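okkk here we go again. third time trying to get the copper (II) ion bound version out, last two times i messed up the smiles copy paste (missing a bracket lol). double checked this time i swear
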Amino acid sequence: MRSAGKISTVSVLGAGVPAWCGWTAPALAQAPQPWQLGFQEAATPVMERIDGFHDLLLVIITVIMLLVTALLVYVVVRFNEKANPVPSKTTHHTVLEVMWTVVPIMILVVIAIPSFRLLYYMDKTTTPGMTLKVVGSQWYWSYVYPDHGRIAFDSLIIPDDQLKPGQLRLLEVDNRVVVPVDTDIRVLLTSNSVLHSWAVPAFGVKIDTVPGRMSETWMRVTKPGVYYGQCSELCGINHGFMPIAVEAVSKAEFAKWVARAKVKFKAQQVPDRPSPELAFADGAVPGR
Ligand SMILES: [Cu+2]
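finally!!
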């Protein structure tokens, strides 16, 4: 626990332990912490792999940095004017030139192989258990559940003066996106205004929503909890005020939520259309 204004060791390490006084709902909540250095704790296999790739890169750049620093120190000490008054006139060294060409290529190949593998893994799922459609607007998000009675609703920020105790300023919304855990969720993203970006750090998801275009990604949330994100593409005056809150619940709880949501958001339900492509293409959610 920490009080406002004090920073605990836990938060500095970015360990992702929920530390808000009076936080009740789900056991795990992932949101930015003051002075956080590391990533939020991974909640999807994609983010776990991003963490692993990050760690690999960290090792590589650390070794390169140490090597370059050591070489610089060696040159400064060994070849300064006092230590080496008569400099060598050497201008070419074939072995050395081949080495400093081949070694960086090898390093790039070592980086490229896991990088491409990860890119394709993040791209899409071939076994989606459900689909979630995300629509960016100025300045809020709309969500559609095409496989669950075409539930549709808008998700708007809770203004500072309406925050309840425990709710996070600039991150909490009126209607959270609810998703089941351990389900491959195909996420389709578009915009009906300008460029936005749907970004949830704990999921390793950051995809631009583009007007007139449908983007795709996927996520499989492995731990129940609330995960916060923000629009990450400068989209206008209220860009900083269109947060994302995803609540991951068990499959049974999700089924209950679907039943409730069908009633609650009936007015916004997307009408049945002849072609699913058409229903996706307009990117609009009725009611706005
Ligand atoms: Cu934005």
